[in-house]
Amino acid sequence: MFRTIREQFDTIFREDPAAKSMVEIFFCYPGLHAILAHRLAHRLYRWGVPLAPRMISQISRFFTGIEIHPGATIGRRFFIDHGMGVVIGETTEIGDDVLLYQGVTLGGTGNETGKRHPTLGNNVVVGTGAKILGNIRIGNHVRIGAGSVVVHPVPDKSTVVGIPGRVVRMRDEDGVLEHGRLPDPTGQALEDLAQRVAELEAMMRQMVTEQDRERKSAH
Predict the structure, then answer these.
(1) First-last CA distance in the chain
(2) Where are the alpha helices (DSSP H) in the chain?
(3) Element (H, E) at 5
């Protein structure tokens, strides 16, 4: 247990440059409070203890603004940055070294039974306000852009943006999620279309010019 707590502190120091001391983290980081409460609630949930796990989850939600169902399985070195509005469903599975920003939802798509929430691999970063819905797998080393809505599986080492989320980049190595530099597939499509229209207009002008020359030479 003490090793887990120490690991959480080390993770926060690594992921958040604003963290200045262990005392500050202990008192001022709701993401830490939420994950420690979840570790306890999840253990009781697996032991089959009635009611207590959900009560712990609700108390944690009240104080942190982060809702994690005690049934969710979460790996090591998990970090929720800021955290307000994060929701993690009952059958969610999260790997190691995963980072979530505020407003993220790992939820279901309706009234399904059984496994109905997403599975996240290792080294996944989910941007602010993103929604990952349904029993889908998000691969290892995936970056999901802010505000994206992901409803289909995502392969390893890829970046996803948009509504619905689309893979816009595949990477051979790890990378940070730079929100200001994420690709814009819609904007790129419009730019490609504008370029194609310009090329067609140039071709039409050339054809008209050649026809004018042919008519003048005929006279």
Answers:
(1) 96
(2) 2-15, 22-28, 30-46, 52-64, 185-218
(3) helix 2-15
Full-model pTM:
0.76
Q: Two tokens at 92?
A: 């969610």
* Whether the predicted pLDDT of 174 surpasses 70: no
State the Cα–Cα distance between residues 60 and 83, nearest whole angstrom: 12
In the 8-state DSSP scheme, what is residue 8?
H
Q: CA 175 to CA 18: how far, in whole Å? A: 20
| Cα 13 to Cα 111: distance, rounded to the nearest angstrom | 39
Q: Which is nearest to 133 in space by CA: 146, 117, 156, 115?
A: 117
Evaluate whether 42 touches 71 at the Cβ level (below 8 Å): yes
What is the number of alpha carbons within 13 Å of residue 116 lying toward its C-beta? 11
Report in angstroms the alpha-carbon separations of 3 from 9, 29, 42, 90, 130: 10, 18, 17, 25, 31
pLDDT computed for residue 138 by the predictor: 96
Distance (Å, whole) CA 79 – CA 71: 18
| Spatial distance between the Cα atoms of 170 and 175, rounded to a whole number of angstroms | 11
Structure tokens at 202: 């140039």
Residue by residue, DSSP assigns 208-219 as HHHHHHHHHHH-
Mean of the pLDDT values across residues 190-208? 82
Mean pLDDT of the chain: 87
